[in-house]
Protein 1
Amino acid sequence: MALEAGKGLSSQSSSSRMGFAPLPLRRRKSLGVSNGSRVTMMAADVVDKPKKGSKEIAKDTLLTPRFYTTDFDEMERMFNTEMNKNLNEAEFEALAAEFKTDYNQVHFVRNPEFKAAAEKLQGPLRQIFVEFLERSCTAEFSGFLLYKELGRRLKKTNPVVAEIFTLMSRDEARHAGFLNKGLSDFNLALDLGFLTKARKYTFFKPQFIFYATYLSEKIGYWRYITIYRHLKTNPEYQCYPIFKYFENWCQDENRHGDFFSALLKAQPQFLNDWQAKLWSRFFCLSVYVTMYLNDVQRTAFYEGIGLDTRKFDMHVIIETNKTTARIFPAVLDVENPVFQEKLENLVTLNKKLIAIGESKAPEALKSLQKVPVITSFVTELLAMYLMRPVDSGSLDFVDVEPQVVY
Ligand SMILES: [Fe+2]
Ligand SMILES: [Fe+2]
């Protein structure tokens, strides 16, 4: 899964001015072990409390990366080849073969540059980096948990699809492990075993898992590749070596997205009617707005690596939207200047909500103060949702091949 899949809108933790939402970080040593291809992540290593020395888990907010669960019985029915004749087994077998090739088997190998670079990062930028690693690790780990469970549950019904999920969970474990190892450069580690148990799981029915995960993988691809290309052209901002790994890393996310594209095609009911169009637009809006609100609150991070946050986000949104238009039956008109104007209005309203949340006023008064702001927020969102959409991909659009850059 990608950097920040995210879901939902609104305010967030008051733990710092940056709005950081710290997770159960502990001083050294990580659960995720990243050592080239042999990365393992012990999801079953469940504990009652964060390991000794960990920070308390922070309050979850609507903008923190989420953990998902779904209706696994419905998933089993959907991938039963007897029941679903739309399953293109040859396509899934080809995808499975590609995943088995494991292009990035030896990609995620660390070197001494990491620790040295982390030591040079001091002051506010250091804290921002820690938060970036923390959030990214959580998002990747969330993908690992979901895919691993899907791999397990679909084994009997559809071994090929199950195998792909398991291989994708391998990739996500590797990504999360690599990020967690990055935290060790800052003498911290995420207690992933605790996180597995302590986090609330958001339930999405399979249809919504497909939309949300497809978008999350593709947006992750565009985020990684954009940062990678930017730092390649502007090496003076290359302040931590993890970004050098993004070129191959993002190809994993791209492949994951292509797999979800194949899954969606096998469920034409999710793509071919007016409800599918409405849901597609809803998920696009939800994912884009969440990312924008999250990132604008963290401009220091993007500026720290020489990016203009808003330009970066708009580029990612536009490109993701173009990619998504190949498969979703409708997408948003994100290139319309009104869309960005409204995004900015949401930023202002979100700031107001945070300020109210952080004020010392009594809770009842705060709730009252929030009402008009939330009303405006919802009105803006609705206006964005109702903007004339862009009709896009359909099942007739057969040119949705995995885009492998090797
Ligand atoms: Fe990933
Ligand atoms: Fe992924």
Protein 2
Amino acid sequence: MAAGAAVRAWMLVLCLWGAVTGDQNITARIGKPLVLNCKGAPKKPPQQLEWKLNTGRTEAWKVLSPQGDPWDSVARVLPNGSLLLPAVGIQDEGTFRCRATSRSGKETKSNYRVRVYQIPGKPEIVDPASELMAGVPNKVGTCVSEGGYPAGTLSWHLDGKTLTPDGKGVSVKEETKRHPETGLFTLHSELMVTPTRGGALHPTFSCSFTPGLPRRRALHTAPIQLRVWSEHRGGEGPSVGEHMSEYTVPLEEVQLVVEPEGGAVALGGTVTLTCEAPAQPPPQIHWIKDGRPLPLPPGPVLLLPEVGPEDQGTYSCVATHPSHGPQESGAVSISLIETGKEGTTAGSVEGPGLETLALSLGILGGLGTVALLIGVIMWHRRRQRRGQERKVPENQEEEEEERAELNQPEEPEAAESSTGGP
Ligand SMILES: *[C@@H]1O[C@H](CO)[C@@H](O)[C@H](O)[C@H]1NC(C)=O
Ligand SMILES: *[C@@H]1O[C@H](CO)[C@@H](O)[C@H](O)[C@H]1NC(C)=O
């Protein structure tokens, strides 16, 4: 009959579909209960179903049925046909299969690949360096992650960017240990770096743990900020961080950095002078112009906005530290860039002309900026409107994808919470 043919066709489709979908990947947290559903099984006995599992605990396939005895405390078939593992362990990783026949005689197979995981404690940086020496290899610290499964990996970051060991400036020594009883992993990663002279003075290091299973979140250590020192001039083999008192800062350690480089600036420009004096705690910085102290509150940065002729001169800074005494930086000179003869001889004659030119240029510039702003705002609005039109379907798709993704690994976890124990 036609109806019978349709049913048979449907069964064929379902069988093919089952063959195509293959194993469903399940991740379960160690120590938690796991429930695997036997698809297509009647909700209540009598049922025709059979569970088969091949895991670290079985030699070959182990068969469990609703009528049979539970397998010690490892696994048992629930009244609704699902398989319960009261507390998942590393040995339960493997393949789980169920074959069920419905009341109408339809056979359904469920295939699961179970992988287990354990989230380690928050990684930590142990034995962190207190400071680093430029030009030589320094141990920054050892990152430790304890109690994870599967092993996962540790990686280091400098100022937020991942550090790739290159065997030269950056090297990493790794060690993976496994607890003899629990089988959980402890990872160690020791970082050595050779800071370049003239590089960043306050690099920030952190370490993160990346789980060995996909879709699990990474864990991060608290960052550590270190101070980079340049080497002693005499090079008498300083021992990093052992004797702070040995770090009397040589004179050239107090450095004056000028921006723009060279100290030449156009009239009305801005000059920034930064006094770099490596010491802990930070020393007091005073400023000197043409040999005379500037009457300013102490601070490591001297900003000269709208530079005029009166700002030209020779600048230096003095770092005063209680244990080191005052140390002066080298001097830099600030000068105005001469924009041709008119600039320097700008007197009563040329002045007004230049001022008018500057004024009209200023107005033109202002108008241009306003036009540009309006343009940007209009463009932004149009984009927003178009974005809203497009957003709705996009979001839906994303959500659906996410749900589809979550379905597989999260299914057992959702089931876990409903069992609540053996
Ligand atoms: C399950 O994981 C295996 C590798 O472990 C992969 O090849 C397979 O595509 C995954 N199956 C699904 C349905 O995600
Ligand atoms: C079977 O029962 C368990 C525990 O009561 C439950 O977690 C699971 O979702 C049930 N399975 C089905 C297919 O209803």
Protein 3
Amino acid sequence: MNQKSHLIFTLYTIYGILLKVVASKGKPRGISGQYPLVQNMTVTEGGTVNMTCRVEYNDNTSLQWSNPAQQTLFFGDKKALRDNRIELMHASWSELTISISDVTLTDEGMYTCSLFTMPVRTAKAYLTVLGVPEKPEIDGLTKPALEGDQITLTCMTQGSKPAADLRWFRNEKEVKGAKEVNASGKTFTVRSSLQLHVDRNDDGVAYTCKVDHVALTQTPQQATEVLEVHYAPHVKIISSLVVPQEGQYLKLECMSKGNPSPDPVMWTKDGGELPDLDRMIVEGRELTFTSLNKTDNGTYRCEASNHLGTSSAEYVLYVYDVPTTLPPSTTPPLHPIPPDPTAQLGTHASDPTVTGNRDPNAIGQHGTDHALIGGVVAVVVFVTLCLIIVLGRYLARHKGTYLTNEAKGADDAPDADTAIINAEGNHAHAEEKKEYFI
Ligand SMILES: *[C@@H]1O[C@H](CO)[C@@H](O)[C@H](O)[C@H]1NC(C)=O
Ligand SMILES: *[C@@H]1O[C@H](CO)[C@@H](O)[C@H](O)[C@H]1NC(C)=O
Ligand SMILES: *[C@@H]1O[C@H](CO)[C@@H](O)[C@H](O)[C@H]1NC(C)=O
Ligand SMILES: *[C@@H]1O[C@H](CO)[C@@H](O)[C@H](O)[C@H]1NC(C)=O
Ligand SMILES: *[C@@H]1O[C@H](CO)[C@@H](O)[C@H](O)[C@H]1NC(C)=O
Ligand SMILES: *[C@@H]1O[C@H](CO)[C@@H](O)[C@H](O)[C@H]1NC(C)=O
């Protein structure tokens, strides 16, 4: 600020007042009863704002804008404060508009417009400057996190005024965080933290922190972090057949989940290597048997591991005979005990010791369950169909009986009227019934 220019403008001011004193002599009193009119303004940090001061009636008296520090900015069209950001937009006897560009938080405050009547009339306008929150930052992420870790994500944004709001989203779905606001100078530092107990379901999940603020109308500020969770593998075996039979094609898939991905998986049979690699083809996670043979019986195991652990699953293969359901064309079974699925199920269900973990029939038994359920369902469906047909026929016959009754109504009636009434009544009844038949 320039002292010299201030002195000059103070003189200007005095000069203006003197002029006014001289001019107001002999003028009607009501004229000088004018107040300058101003408006409170709000501007975003870095933006531009126009400050306008108007008077409805003015007898050539100067208007002046001064800043919160009481420094004169413009006196009429004369610039008083050397500040490139402050410019004159419009100056007349009835209006003085100045613009302030590149607004900073220190520009905030009460601005005064003065009209140099006698006495001086002033109006005050408050300029509010909004602090734009900085792009938020997320802290506290360990990459990768291990399953079971307790982590606290913290999102922080500085420079907001008024204090910004922070919102957390887990894959677009809002989740609640704990907010903390601290003032630092004129602006606020806002933090929001989120406690997570990570598990494998958090792997690949995106956590987003969004800033809500009045100064961010079009472009919302946000930060996103994608969780990477490492966890020990978990495998299971999926079989393409429920009841594997001799000669069939069987595919066993070793489904292994884990991060890092447990690759490759290892297949063994009965604790040793696969015996017949010509017919047992291992490709990626799959073990395929091109044509099942009863010698393939055994416990198959797939194992997968990463640096966090090892997991294995077992599948007990029992190759069933091709069913001999067509007696005339097939030779009688050579085995004294045919491996009938139903029979197997019966035996083992009643024997708890055999149902133990390594029972070679465990899986087959499971398959038998399915077969049995399938059979029962088929029978139930068949019986239901039969019932529907029988019922349909019965009802059709019943309907016929009604029609006969209707005719009878006429026979039983003592006179013609009653006969008609009876007939109609029966008829209505028959109609009602018909609806049910349909
Ligand atoms: C300020 O006023 C000028 C002239 O009236 C106008 O062109 C400009 O858009 C205004 N600026 C703001 C920020 O209102
Ligand atoms: C204001 O000043 C102008 C010349 O600057 C003059 O023509 C006009 O009459 C004056 N108006 C009043 C109301 O004094
Ligand atoms: C302008 O702002 C001041 C200070 O914040 C307040 O006291 C006054 O009521 C406001 N005036 C208007 C017209 O909003
Ligand atoms: C806020 O202030 C409190 C007390 O002054 C302090 O303990 C805390 O760490 C501060 N938090 C932030 C986010 O700065
Ligand atoms: C099963 O394997 C044995 C010996 O490896 C072989 O003799 C037999 O023909 C095979 N059975 C079928 C159905 O392929
Ligand atoms: C297949 O397994 C069943 C049951 O364990 C057994 O009775 C049968 O002898 C086995 N067959 C062969 C060829 O190993």
